[in-house]
Amino acid sequence: MSMTERARRKAEKLDRLGELAAARDDERGVSLWQEAFRRLRRNPAAIVGAVILGIFLVVAVLGPFFVPYGPTDTIGIREGLVKSGQGIIPGPSADHWLGFDHQGRDEFSRLVVGARQTLLVGVVSTLIGLAVGAVIGGVAGAAAGLGGRWGRWVDGILMRVIDMMLALPSLLLAVSIAALLGAGLDTVMIAVGLVSVPVFARLLRGSMIAQSSSDYVLAAISLGVRRSKVALSHVLPNSLAPVIVQATLTLATAIIEAAALSFLGLGNPDTAVPEWGVMLADAQPYLGIRPALAIYPAVAIIVTALGFTLLGEAMREALDPKLRK
Amino acid sequence: MFRFIVRRLLQLVPALFGLSVLLFIWLHKLPGGPESAILGERATPEMRAAIRENLGLDEPILVQYGRFMRRLIRLDLGTSISTKREVTTEFLERFPGTVELALTAMLIAVALGIPLGYLAARRRGRFLDHVSVAGSLVGVCVPVFFLAYVLKAIFAEHLHLFPSSGRQDPTINATRVTNFFVLDGLLTREWDAAADALWHLVLPGLALASIPLAVIVRITRASVLEVLGEDYIRTAEAKGLTERVVRNRHVLRNAMLPVSTTIGLLTGGLLSGAVLTETVFAFSGIGAFVADSISHRDYPVLMGFIMIIAVIFVLVNLIVDISYSLIDPRVRVR
Fold first, then answer.
1. pLDDT tens, B232-272?
2. Do the Cβ atoms of B217 and B117 come closer than 8 Å?
3. Which pLDDT value is given to residue A17?
4. Which of A293, B49, B157, B293 is spaced 20 to 30 Å from B88 by Cα?
5. Disruptive mutation site among B294, B298, B311, B315 for chain A (greatest number of A CBs within 10 Å)
6. Among candidate residues A188, A197, A195, A191, the one with its CA nearest the CA of residue A275
7. ipTM above 0.95, yes or no
8. CATH 3.40.190.10 is right for the domain spanning A43-84+94-323
């Protein structure tokens, strides 16, 4: 072996060492969330979903301040342009971008203002489901994962209740609740929210049980940390990822279910407040005259739901340890 | 196998008991109490008092619950407020229509969904995969009743390919045997009646199938992908089994477990969807009837619907569990 060869080898070795050192410097413990976010940014579906939701949020929050007409202003009838009885509902024009609805109100303004209502229904009902489901699932998960024999007992009872809720189709639950409370926006939100309770509960429970057998839980317990503290500040935060993903997906179904309830006449009876589901339901008698009145809110619902679904699915993929390289 | 079924049936008892308690509470919490469930909202105070006496609403709650249970077991659900007929009779008449519709939808969803999901998984990352994934994402985002209207507008009212409403052309004077119109036509050999009834099922069936189809495609795809990565598939391929044998006996059989669970869970949604599609297509099943009852506040009908759906859901899941043990013998042991 010549001198030059030996020198070259030594240089290579040093380079390797340098690389390794640099690599160690790089890996300052990338957290689960950071890595998930990094993968999310590379997923085109996630970006499309995020863009859709971004636009939706801006419209829902700021839109109502900039609409050209009041959402309840029956300007078309006042100006004699709209005669629903005779089947005259003018379509898009320069002044009224999407034309009028059957009561002579500016369709574009209603659609924009409706975004806020739709967002409200979606978010509130998802939060109801999340809150109730997380409490039930959290208690069951902590009891099953960390508790002893009576813990499994508590878990068993809670899960039977959840199974029974799962057995009830969403619409049915909504109808029963509407029978008790009467039709209205709060009925829709409670009904749609309660439907998602079993899903959240089961997810959080499963995730917490899985976490409970981790080494860090064992370590915390052997250090003498109280079990309630282990459950709340160790297991729970590490179990939330699938629940957050599910919340994103539930927002999509909540919007669609709310629309179905409006269609069945269980929605907000106050038609002055525009909401996409109600608008879609209200358009049914005029399908023959102006189908666009149904198509606008329907497309709005579909696109928004799609945005939530895309982002939710991408998040699920990004957080799935099976897909991580 | 027999013991497995018996055990599963016994497990249903507490679930149904819990449900009956919930129904009882629901009935008592209705605005105006259970008497309004019988009289409707426009009852005079005298009528209410009479009914309260008659129902024994002033007796202890447990006695009332016992009476309620006895009625439920005898399938006595009371009288519909709007049609003034026995709720049980009304349901029995309309039930076959909904079953026909739900079966059609499930058949469409399974017959298209499983092959599509399988092919998507096999051709992962290629065109067909992207199309079916995108399609299933959009599919769950379209409100069922809107899809129903679109299908009706295009294929019934515009192209006149399919009928726009009803279960059968009333001019066909079909003989009724079971009230399953397609089956009736086959039994009485009135082929035109059977074909016409089938023809009426296509559009509502398609609308109702949209969400189950989307879900089945996705679950099948994910499940097949997982199975394809298993060692035993590589072994099967390596030992020279034909593609057909590998697909049917190794991939699909193992991938079907989560799919069959999902199909069971989808039935509940199918019945909710039936309420919407039947309304759009004026299809006389229990769905359209219930939609009417919602607007009429017809509580006895709603209560009956809740009960029937819960029982169906529980039974379907029992069937799913049994099919589980048929697909995978390992399940039976537990």
1. 888 988 898 888 888 888 888 888 888 887 887 787 778 77
2. yes
3. 65
4. B49
5. B294
6. A188
7. no
8. no
